[in-house]
Amino acid sequence: MKSLKESIIDSFDNTSNNILEDDNYKKYGMNPSKVKENSDGTIDYNGDVDLNDKDLTEIPFKFNYVKGTFDCGSNKKLTSLEGCPKEVGGDFMCSGCESLLSLEGGPERVNGGFNCSACKKLKNLIGAPSYVEDDFNCDWCESLTSLEGCTKNIDGDFSCYNCKKLRSLKGCPSYVGGGFTCRHNAKGFTEEDVEQECAVDGYIDV
User: Fold this and answer.
1) pTM of the entire predicted model
2) Sheet harboring 87-88: ordered strands across?
3) Which residue in 38, 57, 107, 162 is a FRET match for 84, CA 20 to 30 A apart?
């Protein structure tokens, strides 16, 4: 049985660790009271997570579920999405991550829109979510040569505008509930090109 002194020391040590953890969450604009720490080392967050333009080289926590929006965009040194939540209740944004090499490690399900625009080193979309409820945007990805890996069914709009090396729509969504935009790419796509690959309920902008 622990002595009173040992119990006090243990209590102090645990409090110190919690304070350090809380400060770490606060450093990234997160409210510690909205964090649920899981037994596998991941965390759930009951709100929005804004890691935009924080000069990150990696995602600072291992997320599991985020109830709101998750934004890790404009981190020009970020090379991987490892640590991102597996499911996002709102939008997911990693746009402007100029060093990002792959979408692998990112969310599997996004209950909002998905935006990976202006990720200059992305060559394909492997690792994209299996489910996106709203829009999917991969505009201005200047190294993108393939849409392989793209989410297959999108209820919102799909856009691959101004991807200067993109010559094929192979791998694009098979269904888009909104509009499909694919202008200013390496190849001038036609409406027929789009219709061969995708059932579009809305407009086609070529």
Assistant:
1) 0.90
2) 35-37, 43-45, 63-66, 87-88, 109-110, 131-132, 153-154, 175-176, 199-200
3) 162
